[in-house]
Amino acid sequence: MLPFQELALDPRLLRSIQHLGFTAPTPIQAEAIPAVMVGKDLIVSSKTGSGKTLAYLLPMMQRLLKSRPLSAQDPRAVILAPTRELASQIYAQLRLFVANTRLTCAFIVGGENFNDQEKLLKRQPQIIVATPGRLADHLEHKTFFLQGLEMLILDEADRMLDLGFMPQLHAIHAAASHRLRQTLMFSATLDHAEVNELALSLLKSPHRVALGAGYDPHKDIAQTCYYADHLTHKEALLLHFLRNETVRQLIIFTATREDTERLATLVQTAGFAATGLNGKLTQAQRNAVMQAFATNKFQVLVTTDVASRGLDLLQVSHVINFDLPKHPEEYVHRIGRTGRAGQQGVAISLVGPKDWQALQAIEQFLRRPLEFSKVETLPAKFNGQVAAKPKAKIQPKKANKPKGETKVNSVTDGSAVLKKKAPKFFEGGDDGAAPMKKKQK
Ligand code: AMP
Q1: Ligand 1 cavity residues, CB under 6 Å
Q2: Which of 180, 116, 117, 190 is nearest to 147 (CA)?
């Protein structure tokens, strides 16, 4: 692969890249950076951990360093992300690049003091990293204007739409609607009607980059499912993996906030340093937990989907889905917390009767069955057959989905498993916390 030097980037950017220890662009960077540098709008689908943040930060910085501002007061670039966690990861990377330059930046997300943010915006930062809801609130208050905006970047556009941010994205777009604006849109999948609708209204003849959609198999993540009969069985499996796998750091995803606390205690009692994270904590508490996990004070993090995106920690060797996520694309994001930047990762999913429908939705989304295995000492009676009760109707699959009414799952006992119709994929949103209210009994 060509080295970064050949991308004709500003020497200050090259110095920061060297400081990070990166030698060559990842495939997504190699494709996106030159396209953005020639001024094209871009729509990109890419896998988790593929280096997409630098794929937009580098050409964005290049443009801001090389061209004269359109306005002396207005922000020159805005990066929008669906969650505070992802926004904060982006901001951390951005600051590394800004540190070498005279550019200024600000971080504007929900859950933090509005007045403090107003003061920040009045200082006229040139780059803003924000969540769309809070930024749109400031726009409405006329704290700042976007007429001079040169670059609008949407990271995880699909997720922002799932969370119901379409109106805010349109408001931000409308406030910055002029022909000199360049717009970049990143999404785990481009098979999303609203993403395409948004792209049509925001982007001008975009260059499309599809380097491995979200559902392509991730070569660095070994994914295996295990059947579980009930909650106690899941807990026994969890402890088995903790004791028998070589775990550097582990993230356990659960469906409910209550379970994050209960499981963190269970894991602590078994002798591992564990902490819980959920949407009930204040932003300051969430930051503190993330920081403690990132600096290895805890080996295990138990969380809801609040942490399924944005966490970029190379020490995470394992992800365990204690419950399967309600939204299938969330599965891709959860397992993408491991196997980052070329490291090998292991993703284990525990599938009980209550996870059965979610499993089918995930397999439809991935367009392939997931592998099953079993722990000899902890066999399960449940093997998916429960879902195929006599009355359950087998629905024909919609177009675009894998063909055939039945599918043989690769369970180790070789039993064929009937598939029911998968639930709807996108049902609007919360911020990822507690997608399912019911506890497993
Ligand atoms: P991202 O997809 O942006 O979340 O990046 C995933 C991981 O890859 C992060 O840890 C980045 O720091 C790392 N990364 C990004 N670009 C490169 C590169 N060119 N070479 C090596 N690692 C990279």
Answers
A1: 22, 25-26, 29, 49-54, 312, 340-341
A2: 180
